[in-house]
Amino acid sequence: MERLDVLIVGGGPIGIACGLEAKKKGLRYLIVEKGPIVNSLFNYPINMQFFSSSERLEIDEIPFISKEAKPKRNEALEYYRRIVTSNQLRIHLFEKVEDVSKNEDGFTVRSDKGLYTADNVIIATGFYDLPNMLNVPGENLPKVSHYYKDPHFYASQKLAVIGASNSAIDAALECWRKGSEVTLIIRGPEVGQRVKYWVRPDIINRINEGSIQAYYNSNVKEIRETELIIETPEGIVHLENDFVLALTGYMPDFAFLEALGIQLSKDEKRLPNYDQDTMETNVPGLYLAGVICGGMETHKWFIENSRIHAKIIVSDILQKKAQETHS
Ligand SMILES: Cc1cc2nc3c(=O)[nH]c(=O)nc-3n(C[C@H](O)[C@H](O)[C@H](O)COP(=O)(O)OP(=O)(O)OC[C@H]3O[C@@H](n4cnc5c(N)ncnc54)[C@H](O)[C@@H]3O)c2cc1C
């Protein structure tokens, strides 16, 4: 079995940044990704526009040219794909890592397609796979989705969008503009404060003029084939409905992290235990990179501020390797 210096779990922007840095520094590395290259971005809404300008999404200062200052999903796919192909990064796609176990001789990594041994492992698995569930009756009906892709699907339909953050607001506005009858259901008293500064006035104006209906301080109690039951401050509302987009955020796979021996904080943030100077977790040789570092605080890390993790981790691995050689 081939022995690696580092195996990277996840081929998102940050896993790719780690692979590129490992390659540049001459490490034996492999990225294992359960979907296509940058799987999370591939699954974003087709017309999605990043809030970051393109230079802030760059890896290793490789120029990211986009038509507008803030790139679209397709441009980001093009950019990260070209990084993988032009640099001939070693990446196994459509292969899911199922288990990482530590032994005296490093790590054994088991995927659904193979077995690997590595001195170090980087977990860069993001948070986009597990939606925050509403846990209400009817949530499993086929008309309910936790991922939004294309507004065309909802044209001329009664669409309820649950949530108040960027994903929900983008979906509500885009679907309304393509002819959906949109109702927003918001748990708190207002549209989220972190909604993009150029989008927030747009949604507030659409709500105020009555184009999009909004229920604040409200919760969906049940989803039925043709209606929703909503608890509002004015009482229970029965809302006619064809489709539901429950865009209430996503969370990291905590069970996966715990199974690897990574400690999580006991509070609701569930912050993983790692050294901020090296990104190494409480399990020696096991590192975290990218948005996974934020636990339930999924807004804390993004591409812009976590792309630096790649250099920090690879430099720590190299330092340890040098120490081993001299001891
Ligand atoms: C709608 C939206 C807009 C955003 N806009 C911006 C923005 O403008 N600027 C910005 O900086 N950030 C933005 N973000 C956040 C940004 O997309 C994420 O920060 C980024 O994807 C994080 O990269 P990552 O590599 O850490 O995780 P991800 O991109 O989520 O990559 C994790 C990868 O791990 C893979 N994986 C998971 N489990 C396994 C396993 N067991 N085995 C193998 N592979 C596995 C997944 O398939 C995935 O490809 C946005 C996010 C969303 C949802």
From TrEMBL:
PROSITE patterns: PROKAR_LIPOPROTEIN
Entry's Gene Ontology molecular function annotations: oxidoreductase activity
Keyword entries, A-Z: Flavoprotein, Oxidoreductase
Matches recorded under SUPFAM superfamilies: FAD/NAD(P)-binding domain
PANTHER family the UniProt entry points to: THIOREDOXIN REDUCTASE 1-RELATED-RELATED
Name of the protein this chain belongs to: YpdA family putative bacillithiol disulfide reductase
